Amino acid sequence: VNLSSSLEQLRVENNELDNIDKSLAECTSLTVLNLSTNKIPSLPSEFGLLKNLYKLSVNHNKLVELPEDIGGLEALEYCWFDNNLLTRLPESFGLLTRLVELYLDNNHLHQLCSSFSSLTSLRELYLHNNR
């Protein structure tokens, strides 16, 4: 799908998607992205180019890991990664200094990356049911 660089919101939840094309990173005006309740195992490595994204929902998927460039989402304030298969967070996660709410519950996280302490704007953190 060829999406416009002027697109600001994209909601494709509940579609059984199992892949996100790297061309999504060309939607540089995106502020809200909802990929919830699909079958997505990974995000493209170019994902960090979405500099205007402030709300991201990728909950209820099959994510095993996040791309290292996730730290490039410098405007991100609200983030849902709950109900996935995440086992670790990349060190670049600490660059998300505007993050206010973060949902990481119901994953497979055993520890948080050392850069996590840099998330000084964080007000709500959900980590329950990780194993």
From TrEMBL:
One of its GO terms (cellular component) is cytoplasm. Pfam families: LRR_1, LRR_8. Keywords: Leucine-rich repeat, Repeat. It comes from the Eukaryota. This is Uncharacterized protein. InterPro entries: Leu-rich_rpt, Leu-rich_rpt_typical-subtyp, LRR_dom_sf, LRR_domain-containing.
